[in-house]
Amino acid sequence: xxxxxxxxxxxxxxxxxxxxxxxxxxxxxxxxxxxxxxxxxxxxxxxxxxxxxxxxxxxxxxxxxxxxxxxxxxxxxxxxxxxxxxxxxxxxxxxxxxxxxxxxxxxxxxxxxxxxxxxxxxxxxxxxxxx
Length: 131
Fold this sequence. Notes:
Blueprint: E1 16-20, E2 43-47, E3 62-65, H1 73-78, E4 85-88, H2 93-98, E5 102-106, E6 111-113, E7 120-123
């Protein structure tokens, strides 16, 4: 499993989230994601620690990285005070400034941790957002 992301400034308490540009989702139905490695319908969620990976418009290409225990001291020094770095293509800056993304907090009862990717959670049941 991939190492978890480091804490970030202002990180809230641990919770599960789904991020969307849609402001009116009342219920998440299990479905097969276009990028899923399984054909089983599921609802996907992300934990608070990994939430910043989704603070972007849906189709915005991006890269995110942070120092790990394997990062050399010289490379870690390049990050200066940052705990992580997010990169987007210049052509997406206007969309970054104008797109509103919403984080729906989800109840954790029906979710289990993704066995392959740390910070990702899966539910086989429909899920209504708590907020």
